[in-house]
Hints:
The structure holds two protein chains of two kinds.
Chain A: H1 9-18, E1 25-28, H2 36-39, E2 47-50
Parallel strand pairs in A: 1-2
Chain B: E1 5-7, E2 22-25, H1 36-45, E3 50-53, H2 60-63, H3 79-83, E4 87-92, H4 105-111, E5 116-119, H5 122-133, E6 138-141, E7 155-158, E8 161-167, E9 171-181, E10 187-188, H6 197-202, E11 204-214, E12 225-227, E13 234-236
Parallel strand pairs in B: 1-13, 2-3, 2-9, 3-4, 4-5, 9-11, 11-13
Antiparallel strand pairs in B: 6-8, 7-8, 9-10, 10-12
Amino acid sequence: MKFPKKLNKDNIAYRASMELEENSYVNLGIGLPSLCAKYIDKKKNIRFQAENGVLGFDELSQSNLQNPDYMDAGGQF
Amino acid sequence: MKKTEIFDSFISSLEGISDDMTIMIGGFGGQGGQPTNLMLALKELNVKNITLIGNVAGISMITGYGWIDEDKKNAIDHSIFFENKQVKKIICSFPVPAQRKPYSEIEKSWKNNETIVEIVPQGTLAEKIRAAGSGIPAFYTKTGVGTIVEENKETKIINGEKFILEYALSSDVALINANHSDEFGNLVYVGTSRAFNPIMATASKLTIAEVDKIISSRLINSERIGTPGIYVNRIVSKNNEIS
């Protein structure tokens, strides 16, 4: 990913995801943190937990695959 | 112990709820785990001066929080009770969206001095409710030490660290949601829709559960039961597979 002059949310999430250490369990709270799941290097074997209790979530679902019973802390699916 | 009663009408399942009661509403916030039909019935019942207890409250209708894209425009949340001037006080952890405008109904009521809004840190809120259901009158927590949360509360130094004393939180009624139940009121939850529902069931005098369907106890997976029926006074569903 190229860094533009002005940071946007995706750049921040991408940069923050680089800080995460291999094999860790990471709790993502509401807001920007949820975006980190999208940019994590899969080889790092990181497990994400949402603040509301799901362990093992990933990037957001496509609109047609959203399930109200599986939500993250940001109210997204 | 009275048997769990089964209702097929949401409004009739609320019988006995009156003005001035304290009412818990389950779910994390958003459509999953929220007893939406019971909430609509509670609005219709039009009881006044109630105290609400919930987690994320009153932001879905302006932000779509927790509602899938397909249903976003029909989102329902705690705002309906504020529009209808039913609420004396709300105890919750997240009543206002991150964006400043438009104001949520809760924020409007608070600004107009119509409602008291008490914000409790989310984990503390969950533990206050769990404590009430487990017969624990109060507990110590580190959350909020050195902040506004600590004001007017007892504190104690334990092993050199400061803790706040938080009291248990119970209610007259809990309106909760589960995926399905059997005829004894044993409830099965799915995914994150579980949030806050099991603890509220234990912390209230009267627990009313809205379920997608009621199946026979012969078919329910007993290892998946999240709330035993002994905590559930009433179940209500449009889809009852036992007669």
